[in-house]
Amino acid sequence: MSRIWFGTDGVRGPAGEGPLAAPFLRRLGRALGEQAGAESLVLLARDTRESGPAIAASLAAGLSASGARPLDLGVLPTPGLPLAMRARGAALGVVVSASHNPWRDNGVKVFGAGGHKLDDASEQALEARVDELGGVADDGHSEPDPTLTCEDGAAEYVEAISARFADLDLAGMDLAVDCAHGAATHTAVPVLRALGARVSALAIEPDGRNINADCGSTHLASVASAVVAGGHELGLAFDGDADRVLLVDAAGRACTGDAMLGLLGPWMASRGRLPDATVVATVMSNLGLERLLASHGLSLLRTPVGDRYVSAAMRRGGYGLGGEDSGHLLFGASEDHPGDGLFTALYVLTALLGTGCTVGDAIDAVPAVPQRLLNVQVAARPPLERLPAVTARVADLEAEHGADLRIVLRYSGTENLARVMVEGTEGQVVDRVTDELAALWVEQIEAAGRPAR
Fold first, then answer.
1. Cα separation, 86 vs 81, whole angstroms
2. Which of 40, 64, 97, 99 is catalytic?
3. Model confidence, pTM
4. What burial letters (b/e) apply to 153-188, b meaning 16+ CB within 10 Å?
5. pLDDT above 90 (res 8)
6. 99 is a catalytic site residue
7. Which homologous superfamily is 256-340+356-365 in?
8. Hey, where are the domains in the chain?
9. DSSP helix/strand/coil, 224
10. Tens digit of pLDDT for each residue in 107-117?
11. How confident is the model at residue 452 (pLDDT cuts 50, 70, 90)?
């Protein structure tokens, strides 16, 4: 059974509409409270969007109605919530955030036992219960939900991260840090400065509507310009909820998640921190990363798109490192740390100091394999197995080109978009195959939607 409201990373969409409107949120809160159990502690946190407090209040109203005990930790990086759950023994946790999306959007990310994101089956069960309760229909409730008294979750998070990296000496390191006017605003810069770094802080004045606006990890031009103009050693850029980070080198070049995995994998392996000599990444990570790891005797295990799939694979296999090219890295095994932009940045800085490498070296180490991602608007999202002409053509192309071509076809989790990703050793082939498959996919969807004669 497919999910209706939960996408790749929780519920996401325009604030105040559909599943982000109060009636649905109260029902979702009630369903979560029933799952957690009466008197169970459920933690809430959010980023800096102006819609966050109202969404948290509606969720809390539903939680309270079910007998659970909601506790609001206020503005907090998403990874701070799983840490707080473990420290407080909470049954569930909810982060109100749309991550890197614009301010008008918001979302709900749910964390289950142990601070791990829910699997598909759990989300489907939640959706079924919310649907029983009325789904997105109006519930006749006209008064705003009362807001909760907040505790300072950010202070606890800063203390925990500072303790973990207490031995890291960043004295003399000169950084530009872009906090995206988001959840990292009051956490990242204090930690970096306490460890001795000189920090030029950018995008640290959230007003509820400027989160991710021409700043942060999805708009690297801002921090890249600051690094070059200010002569900084490197730059860090977080996204709105601070669960991911990207770096730029002294020349303003982007250091993506693949480059960070390429740096950390061999370094962790040399220190006995990479179980089974394996790094976990999604199907979207570049073939260049796979080849770099192979040159060090390491394997790359691929998962579907989404950090929760990476996390699940890491827990099943006991692996120590995984992530996405977006800069969302995860650390398992002895670390068992959720996707955390600040933790990742500090881990990367530790590796750079330990190896003597620069960010530029990490970028250059990953061989560039041509890759193209094309998003195509479609009328519907039928399963690919119902489009045999598409799957057959993919099989033919893969048989023809072998290891020199890799194809990933998937739908957006929240929009009617077909995503075609092709990478290979020859750029012209990549472009031709991408355009061909996109056109064929759209054609077959349209044909499937026409009534039979």
1. 9
2. 99
3. 0.89
4. bbebbbebbbeebeebebeebbbbbbbbbbbbbbbb
5. no
6. yes
7. Alpha-D-Glucose-1,6-Bisphosphate, subunit A, domain 3 (3.40.120.10)
8. 6-152, 173-254, 256-340+356-365, 371-449
9. helix
10. 999 999 888 88
11. low
